[in-house]
Write a structure and sequence with these properties.
This protein has 164 residues and is mainly beta. It is 2% helix and 42% strand. It has 1 helix and 10 strands. The strands form 3 sheets. Strands 1, 2, 3, 6, 7 and 10 form a 6-stranded antiparallel β-sheet that branches. The protein has a two-stranded antiparallel ribbon with strand order 4-5. The chain has a two-stranded antiparallel ribbon with strand order 8-9.
């Protein structure tokens, strides 16, 4: 018989008893106490703003702090990966956003200058292991790949609002 050429490591080799399609064909795991996938244990959103009045305008600066605690990556089929699997632990991150709104006192128009993620923090929002499927289904066991998703970099802009 011919030997198959392996281009990577199979999912089953990395996670015995766990299947990316959701069936548990091997040993079972005790999931009690395991953090639910894609949800941090702690998340904080805090903001402060104050309005100053002057010359037919009101000025409102705002600072917003966001913190997302350590999170387990997951997918819709199996939100939890096997316990003790550090590959799917995502580190915590925090972001700082700033804005300044200048609004006419009659409320008909305003201009807001804003910046998000002002420290330009690189932070991961997901990481997953993907087995090949579809047209190459017979070869799916031969190779797979990992993916990672990141949050947006520093962004800034201007929002203009007018009411008629």
């Amino acid at each position: 018989t011919a030997n198959a050429i392996r281009f990577g490591t199979t999912f089953a080799a990395l996670n015995p008893g766990y299947s990316p399609t959701g069936d548990q064909s091997g040993p079972s795991y005790n999931w009690s106490g395991t953090q639910v996938g894609a949800t941090p244990e702690y998340a904080i959103l805090a903001s402060y703003d104050h309005t100053f009045h002057g010359n037919n305008f009101q000025y409102t600066p705002m600072v917003t702090y966001r913190y997302n605690g350590v999170m387990r990556a997951g997918n819709g089929v199996q939100p939890n990966m096997p316990p003790g699997d550090d590959f799917h632990n995502l580190p915590s991150w925090s972001l700082l956003d700033l804005s300044l709104e200048a609004a006419h006192v009659d409320g008909k128009y305003s201009v807001t200058f804003w910046a998000r993620n002002i420290a330009d923090k690189l932070y991961r929002t997901n990481r997953s292991y993907v087995a090949n499927s579809g047209a190459l289904a017979p070869a799916a066991a031969l190779y797979a790949y990992t993916t990672a998703e990141y949050g947006p970099p520093r962004t800034y802009g201007v929002t203009v609002r007018a009411s008629f």
